[in-house]
Amino acid sequence: MCGIYGIVGDKAVEKTLQGIKKLEYRGYDSAGISFFNYEFKLSTDIPKYLKNISCFKNGLNIIREEGDISKLEKIINSLKPKSKLAIGHTRWATHGKPSIANSHPHHSENGDWVVVHNGIIENYIELKQELKGLKFYSETDSEIVAKMLSYNFDGDVLNTIKNVCSRLNGSYALAILYAKNPNKIYVAKSNSPCVVGYSKDIGIVCSDISSIEKIENLYVLPNQTIAEVSAGNINFFDYNLNKIELSKFSGFTIDSSEELGKYSHFMLKEINEIPTAIEKTVVDYNTIEKIRKSLPKKVIKNTKEILIIGCGTAYHAGLMGKRLLEEVCGIKTDVDIASEFRYKNYVPHKNTLAIFVSQSGETADTIKAVKLCKAYGLTTVAITNVKNSSICFEVDYCLYTNAGKEVAVASTKAYNCQVAMFYLMAAYFKAVSIDQDNLIFEEAKQLVDVAKQIKSNKINNICMDIAREIKDSKSLYMIGRTVDYYLSLEASLKLKEISYIHSEAYPAGELKHGTISLIDNDTFVFAFLTQKHLKDKTINNAVEVASRGGKVILFTNQKIENTNFYKIVNLPKLSEFYMPLLLVTYTQLIAYYTSVYLGNNPDKPRSLAKSVTVE
Ligand code: G6P
Q: How far apart are CA 224 and CA 238, in angstroms?
């Protein structure tokens, strides 16, 4: 999703370009840079790039390009603009298709104001109508900000920014250039993440705390804050323009796991990192002393019900959490999709613990759901993979998965770690209820053993074979019961995300109530069976499919006599309690290879973003 990077200081254009490249993993469809250089238009061969470049007499210039950042980089490398002030943006289209005109940075009519924006200005149509006589060149909600700044300029830059921001509804992180102040980036933030930093000769703004370069003084902007960023200094203001002090952020960590190494794609690398990621997650919480530091025992004791909320893969991990918390501890657990939960009539129960699962910690709907639950008076816990992400500042308690940076858009190792965290949580609840602290340690040991099993389980060839078989399918179904159904939801999502093959997950017993009519001789159906007590019922459902010509690929740890199935994948020996953690790795690899065989880029699936910061 959209990303912002900006630099005040030497080599601003080069550094900003490097900065937005670090944000690529979030998913985007166009990119652009604005910089100050009074000479630029005179000294370069611009005609070739007429449609990409806007030069203004005041010294501000904008270069934008659709598609991969490498295309923008090519233009920049050929023109080599010099500057000490630049802002850049990666855009993930919300309002208006991906195009040069819709790409950021956006500018006012005379180019005095240039703006990059993350978030959504919800009242932009209404605001547009106030700007009588002005022409709009894009379909975006963001252009309005640049136009409003110019239209409402009262001679005082900060006052104008404050006045404009107070009219905006929705969410935004804005980085703003004003041509007559070529040493400053102005930043305003409300409900979209943004960090700023400075040291002696540099000032930086970035939308993503894990992507900003290491800097002496780093600040996470609270909502309704304006920052005036210069090289060597930042001033902060509230929306009454009172100067405010912010505390320096000290939890800075640089993630070095961004190298592909021997792998052809990040997704493959990340699937291979699953065993280590689980071990690293578990080791941080493998004793009662460690886990209670992050989530005190009294919270567990007080909990009567649990509500789990997330989006996409994180929601699917939440379903696994439900199974574990109900099965191990007998605590009633509901799971909901964040964007659904927000508009439901939720009836809060006293002593409900709300758990939010989010790899990035930035998903807008999940964060809004946290706020809602807090308003209901619930205790809130986040399970996230990104330290100091926005969600950590909202919840009462935070548990970190230690999966390492996940670059591929489709989540893999983070999912396994989220599920591992639920195993630990279930053990924690149990330990507290029967007063046996060592259960945590026992559970952690089991999880490390499962991680070892995943590591030793060589499944590349099986998964490649299956990927080759299914790659030309138009449509595919995945079935299972209870926990196997939860697994099929994640397996199906992974496949459609990156292969673009239509896939649907169904509770095995529900198939015959409609969907079975879609099964014909060419239809592949993955049937998942990992729980002994479900054997007869799930097999019956798989047989029903096979009888209608469906090509059933059964993944199971049970002994199966029926040979009517297209293929049986025998899963290795492992307690059925932990089987979903292992089985999901097959489905992740099958999705990966199918995507590769179809010539897609599994790391950057079309239209998807890693971190969905708009609602
Ligand atoms: C996006 C990603 C998914 C992810 C979901 C939730 O849709 O493409 O892979 O599962 O967001 O993200 P989160 O960071 O909150 O786990």
A: 6
Q: What angle do CA 83, 49, 57 make, to 5 degrees?
A: 50
Q: What is the pTM of this model?
A: 0.85
CA neighbor of 589 nearest in space, from 258, 270, 261: 270
How close is the Cα of 403 to the center of ligand 1, in Å? Answer: 15
Nearest by Cα to 208 from 198, 218, 219, 193? 193
255-259, 565-569, 592-596: segment of lowest average pLDDT: 255-259
Q: Would residue 180 show up in a list of annotated catalytic residues for this protein?
A: no
At 434, is the secondary structure helix, strand, or coil? helix
Cα 326 from Cα 180, distance rounded (Å):
62
Could you give the CA distance from residue 115 to residue 72 in angstroms, rounded to a whole number?
18
CATH architecture of 260-455: 3-Layer(aba) Sandwich (3.40)
Tens-place pLDDT, residues 97-152 = 999 999 999 999 999 999 999 999 999 999 999 998 899 999 999 999 999 999 99
Domain with CATH 3.40.50.10490 in the chain: 260-455, 460-597
Distance from C-alpha of 291 to C-alpha of 286, rounded to nearest angstrom: 7
CA distance 378 to 373: 6
Which atom belonging to ligand 1 lies closest to the Cα atom of 360?
A: 14
In which element (H, E) is residue 473 found? none
For residue 580, how far is its CA from the centre of ligand 1 (angstroms)?
A: 20
Domain with CATH 3.60.20.10 in the chain: 3-246
Is any ligand 1 atom within 6 A of the Cβ of residue 360?
yes
Count of residues for the chain?
615
Ligand 1 in reach of 610 Cβ (< 6 A): yes
**Closest listed residue to residue 364, CA positions, set 615, 143, 28:** 615
Residue nearest to atom 13 of ligand 1 (CA): 358
Q: Provide the token pair at 558.
A: 């049970």
Radius of gyration of the chain (CA): 26
Q: Which of 512, 498, 507 is nearest to 527 (CA)?
A: 507
Best substitution site from 392, 611, 613, 614 to test ligand 1's pocket, by max atoms within 8 Å of Cβ?
611
Quick one: 460-597 is in which CATH superfamily? Glucose-6-phosphate isomerase like protein; domain 1 (3.40.50.10490)
Show the beta-strand stretches assigned E in 461-529.
475-480, 502-507, 524-529
Domain 3-246 architecture: 4-Layer Sandwich (3.60)
Instruction: Tell me the DSSP string of 230-296.
Output: ETTEEEEEETT--EE--PPP-------TT--TT-SSHHHHHHHTHHHHHHHHHHTT-SHHHHHHHS-
What are the tens digits of pLDDT across the range 340-394? Answer: 999 988 988 889 999 999 999 999 999 999 999 999 999 999 999 998 888 999 9
Least Cα distance to 60 among 152, 227, 177, 160 occurs for: 177
